[in-house]
Amino acid sequence: MDIFTASHISKQFSNHKALDQVSISVPEGSIFGLLGPNGAGKTTLIRIINQIINPDEGELLFYGKKIKPDDIAFIGYLPEERGLYKKMTVGEQALYLAQLKGLSRHESLQRLNLWFEKFEIKAWWNRKVEELSKGMQQKIQFLVTIIHEPKLLIFDEPFSGFDPINANLLKDEILAQKEKGATIIFSTHNMASVEELCDHIALINHSKVVLSGMVREIKKTFKTNTFTISYQGATENLHTLLPGSFQVLDELSDPDLNHAIIKLPDSASPNDLLQLLLPKVSIHALRELVPGMNDIFIQAVTRKPSPEPTLN
Amino acid sequence: MTILGPLLMAATIVIPIYLATQNTEIKNVAVLDETGIFSEKFKDSDNLKFHYLNSDVHSAKSTFHSSGDYALVYIPKTEVTLPTNVIIYAENTVNINLQSYVKNVMGRHIESLKLQARLHELQTDKNKPVPVDDILRSIKTSIDINTLKIGEDGQESKSYTEINMVLGMFSGILIYFFIFMFGAQVMRGVIEEKTSRIVEVIISSVKPFQLMMGKIIGVGMVGLTQFLLWVVLTFGIVTIVVSMISPKEINKTATEQILKRNEAISPVSADVPIVQESQPQEGANMVIEAIRSVDFPVMIGSFLFFFLVGYLMYAALFAAIGGAVDSESDTQQFMFPITIPLILSIILAQFIIQDPDGAVAFWFSIIPLTSPIVMMIRIPFGVPYLQVILSMLLLLLGFLGTTWLAAKIYRTGILMYGKKVNYRELWKWLKLRE
Q1: Is the ipTM of this complex over 0.90?
Q2: Which CATH code is given to the segment(s) B26-162+250-283?
Q3: Residues of chain B contacting residue A78, judged by C-beta atoms under 8 Å apart
Q4: B206 touches chain A (CB under 8 A)
Q5: Together in a domain, A236 and A172
Q6: Which A residues in the span 253-312 are in contact with B, Cβ-Cβ below 8 Å?
Q7: What is the tens place of the pLDDT at every residue in A43-66?
Q8: Quick count: other Cβ atoms within 10 Å of Cβ B400?
Q9: Which residues span the domain enclosing A194?
């Protein structure tokens, strides 16, 4: 079932419309990516989901029922612009934020101990937040977001500002949470993370949803039946070996192999290509070019077709 | 703001000046001069009208309440010395103007009598040179004024205008500083939460209103704790000091005490015209008695109330400012109108001290924005309970009003960055529905 649905959410600020009839459905246990260019309305939608601001129209359902203030106990939110009280000590602050989520002091201490050990940051318990580097602060912020074991995690641009090591840590944690049965929604520009993590996405542009669904399905719709092939021993040019309907988009030769990008006609299959080439050349590799989320993003937002792929 | 600023500044200057020139109400003062020396010496002025009584002191005192007079000036008969003691009876504290006028009139008259006596003395011995400095020094007179409060039931108690003035000013200024200090602390806290973005994290767990009130109440408790510590420590020290120099128990009524002192002075010689004066009361004793006369429970109780609720009211406004801006430097334009009533209260303090029951004092002790300070200045002088209760009620309403206003501005402002906020923008925020 869907852990969360937003239907026909609209929000108007004094001089511009942030959201226009936006609807998303987030299946339980999935990792849901909220994509979109800057200013599209992602953060507004996230704030509405977290009940920080109210929509002008539309409805929010949590586990099928209208969302209510008490539900925040089951939701963990890591905002894009995040901060901590500079003059407070790490431990005291983590304790406060954990208790804010509804945990008892005892419970908070226990869990914090476990997590601090896991992240290897026990030494920071008594240090003031202002003494820590940004990466360290982010670890703590992430920690207090998940400490109450929420069923739904919402991250607004979680990877921004993380170095590759911490980004990896975060990625592993997100997957670990999914293993535990949590659902994760996150908004991002980092398409690599979308590729690696997301099952579902929704792409918002100019306050509207322009693309949504399972990543697998979306990629399929953007596929252009294009393949890269690596081969050897050609005595003739590829163009002569293949019929005209098979477009050779690019060719490259390195000392060992020849590579080419070939766009098949809609009716053809990779086997057809192989059948055409096998008698003539020695094939080393054949791979389908599946469009990356980056390209899909750009295509969907600019509504222009991607430039043709090249080898390099 | 370009227009509002100068207007407000002008108001702060003009209002006190205007009030200074205003005629305060006329006060009727009865004079009972047993010595007969001062008859017709007290002249009517703009706000004091004197009329002379012929009765004895007891009946004068008993009819005082029904007479509608502001005060009764009683100059007791002296056997041997020139009268330099005077008792002023009143319902409440006698204001400083009357006291200084009486002192002035009596002092000058006595000095002129003394001068006459000395000159008369010199005339009998024409050969001696005239020792001018000597004469001037010897005629110097200080008048000892005792102010007494007569209660409804005829109970007398000493009232000390000076200490009431000191206490009034002191508590007024204390409240001024407290409100400013802790209000600004609230504002700074809100701005810090905004700039460090911690507010975004917290706001997902609590409603903006809860965050705002939590901060206001939290800082208030810090202030209260600090104040209570001060009070306890000061009280402790004063009690210890006082008990070490404690005067004897007072049994007789205050009037009888003074008269007794008067009679105790022995004459120097029967020939010399009367130039001696009666002894003034010992300095230290007076201060201690003055402190004792203060109704501390009422003082502290009302101080706590006006401090707390006054602080709460202003803190809400400070929280609203903090929520509307992005940094401390932007707060200037909003701080100004809020601090005007506070500053005005302090400027008016000097007038209120001279005339604690006048129209100015009354109105400014009722209006919520100035009442915390002004009412506290008035209380040592004695304020009718009804007025105090009215002031407290209005202050509570003021607090509710500013909190409602602040909540609207705060909830919109804390998530808004980069927008240059001015009054028109704030007005828009006020109209946004929840």
Answers
A1: no
A2: 3.40.190.10
A3: 201
A4: yes
A5: no
A6: none
A7: 889 989 988 888 889 999 998 888
A8: 13
A9: 2-216
